[in-house]
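Record type: monomer structure entry
Structure origin: computed from sequence
Chain ID: A
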Amino acid sequence: MLVATPLAAALAPVHQRYLLEARQMQALSFAVHIPLVCFGIAFPALVLFVEWLHRRSGDELYLVLAKRWSKVMLALFAVGVITGTILSFEMGLLWPNFTATFGSVFGLGFAIEGFSFFMEAIFIGIYVYGWEPLSPRLHFASGIPVVIAGFTGSLMVISVNAWMNHPSGFRLHGGKVVDVDPLAALFGNSYLWHELVHMYVAAYIVTGFLVAGVYAIERLRGSWGRYQRTALAIPLTVAALAAPVQVLVGDWAARDVARSQPVKLAAIEGLAKTTRGASEHVLGWYTGGQVRDGIAIPKLLSLLAFHNPNATVKGLDTVSPARRPPVNVVRVAFQLMVGIGTALALLGVAYLVVRTRRRRLPQSVWFYRALAVAGPLSVVALISGWIVTEVGRQPWVVYRVMLTSHAVTGAGGIPVGHATLALVYAGLAAAVLWVLRRLARAPLELTVAS
């Protein structure tokens, strides 16, 4: 449990004129890394599923698909290693007071994440290069630790983030962290569960729509054999099943936010004053203490947040202006996430209806055009969701315990580092695109009948 006086009151703010740039630098790294985390969670399971289809049916097409996808999995894992390493260094270099103060709380999580990374790296190598040396059964078994490690590694990072949003498992005494219980902090945190499920469902949505979108583009270009149809149907089915589920998970997450972080909810809605029977505003811009040019739906916010149309929703007036997040950043990100998520769910339902009723893939060219843009839009929704989570918590790095301005480094050179990092990521993106294009253009290892 926490004592009443936050650690923020005991620590003097660091003199750092580039606080915003430091946050942008961290955000850039996170935005680059988080889609790769989605592939690390979901793609190994898809590859293993395709190999299982081959073992069950003996159809060589599934074997070819699994081999090709395993090479993509390896390439994206390698890129994830680079971006993840950069993020790890940034945690210590940009936010030294945060890591120094709370390292004993979340250090166990990062240690487990490190073990998971090494296990994943070892078994990805065995899996990708073991198609010929290993027996089919042993090769399939070598892929299982990859799936497990992708789960446990990301679980640890999500648990640390959940702790930052809802800190527990320690006490503050004289401005010091004492009585640390890492297991309670990381796994006894009620905030963890909706974040965990929300992220894992999102991982399958992003991975499914991105992979399916690649083959939708091939369909639009006229390449539509049995290989392309199969390679599209598997990830699209997974994404189509996950997208409607995410709507329900989002409702669960919103209710947890309403209870634990009411100021974040007020920023999401642009609710200036505590209100009974609060309205939900679709679109619009927050200015002058109200949402302008939005569509107000009476009492909907109270209904969604507390399942009671007459419930009281706390507004931004419950904290001082200095303790409020940037409202429009949070609002726009939230509305992007919800709007795109709803569109993806509808696209998924449309696909499932055609698939189940007519036993075939959709034929409309507009469906494949929509599918081609669904992948990039799913990434936008993913990043928007994390903007809501992280920016909505501001100005706190650990909610109501440590301010971000107290966690930042006092070192100079932040703008130079930010510019250098942007150039590194631009070069990395070009390299990834080149590798993926080469893998896509590699000839099939068999002639697949159309």
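Annotation 1: Residues 7-274+314-441 form one domain.
Annotation 2: Strands lie at 171-173, 176-178, 275-276, 280-282, 285-287, 290-292, 295-297, 312-313, 396-398, 402-403.
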